[in-house]
Design a protein that fits this description.
Layout lengths: L1 H38 L3 H13 L4 H17 L3 H14 L12 H31 L3 H15 L13 H19 L23 E2 L6 E2 L2 E4 L13 E9 L5 E8 L3 H10 L4 E3 L1 E3 L2 E13 L5
Parallel strand pairs: 1-8
Antiparallel strand pairs: 2-7, 3-6, 4-5, 4-8, 7-8
Helix pairs in contact: 1-2, 1-3, 2-3, 3-4, 4-5, 5-6, 5-7, 6-7
Length: about 300
């Protein structure tokens, strides 16, 4: 009786595995069919297949290809706005992706280039913030990889002009320094010399802690000068943004990052202004310490 039950379980498991493999094979077949339909200029039919794949469970590795071919079909059908959303999904998932000459027409490549130029500056700033947060948590391996991605993205030809100006120019300097620190901190210690009683390797010094105000004994910094630049021109609708600054033990701004953008030009003006901001530094039991502060930026509607 027990042997019969075990045999039944093995049989059921075999059926489940076979169904899973069949489902994956069917999805691959559908994706291949969509490619063939696109190649034969049956754009509407290809889009039906791709939308069905998009709404169904599918491997993450297929997502970019699905959105890529959706963008191709939508552009071919003249649906520029929908195509732009599909391209945005591709760029958000894989910022380094660009369709090759063999895969796409010059018009499609130009559409991808336009979206990448618009999205990459924000993606780079977001990835820097993520890497910096990992560095502050002393997750140095993850931080080193994140800063390397930031530096690689800053070398992309589609942000070549923006990378030479703040805020991206500042991020290049910061990311390079933090990447080197994180790589050193995450590297394994050298093997001990071949002696009977090798000395213990020196401990890696901990990175200075940055406080946020929730810790016992912390007194937050006091503003001496925190003047925001005037918004250029007129604002036809209210705008909001967020800025993260790290204030060092002397009360100067050590680093500044826009965590929520207002406009690209105004963000650059704000980051430049932070170099002149001053505070009475935060203290821990009377001793000056580093402090992370969030600054809310609100641009009101112009009335004239």
């Amino acid at each position: 009786m027990k042997r019969s039950f075990a045999t039944a379980r093995i049989g059921a498991l075999t059926i489940l595995l076979a169904l899973s493999a069949a489902g994956a094979s069917a999805q691959e077949g559908d994706l291949g069919s969509a490619r063939d339909l696109y190649a034969s200029a049956a754009y509407d039919d290809a889009l039906v297949v791709l939308n069905r794949l998009r709404s169904a469970d599918h491997p993450a590795s297929q997502s970019r290809t699905i959105e890529q071919y959706r963008a191709f079909c939508l552009l071919a059908l003249g649906r520029a706005a929908d195509a732009e959303q599909a391209i945005e999904a591709v760029v958000a998932a894989e910022p380094s992706f660009e369709p090759g000459d063999a895969d796409a027409s010059p018009r499609i490549r130009q559409a991808f280039t336009a979206v990448r130029r618009r999205m990459l500056p924000s993606i780079i700033q977001q990835r820097y913030a993520t890497a910096k947060a990992a560095f502050d948590r002393k997750e140095f391996a993850a931080a080193a990889e994140g800063f390397s991605q930031v530096l690689a993205a800053l070398g992309d030809k589609d942000v070549a002009a923006e990378a030479k100006q703040p805020p991206l120019a500042d991020l290049r300097t910061l990311a390079g320094g933090f990447q080197e620190l994180a790589a050193k901190a995450s590297a394994p210690p050298p093997p001990p010399p071949p002696v009977v009683a090798p000395p213990a390797p020196p401990a890696t010094p901990a990175a200075p802690r940055i406080y946020t105000g929730g810790e016992t004994g912390i007194v937050a910094p006091v503003i001496v000068n925190q003047t925001l630049p005037p918004f250029p021109g007129q604002s036809v609708f209210p705008r909001n943004g967020k800025l993260e600054v790290v204030i060092d033990e002397s009360g100067a701004v050590e680093s500044a990052t826009m965590t929520s953008t207002v406009t690209q030009n105004y963000d650059a003006m704000v980051l430049a202004a932070t170099r002149n901001w001053r505070y009475r530094p935060a203290t821990l039991n009377g001793v000056p310490v580093k402090f992370r502060k969030m600054v809310q930026i609100t641009i009101k509607l112009s009335t004239s």
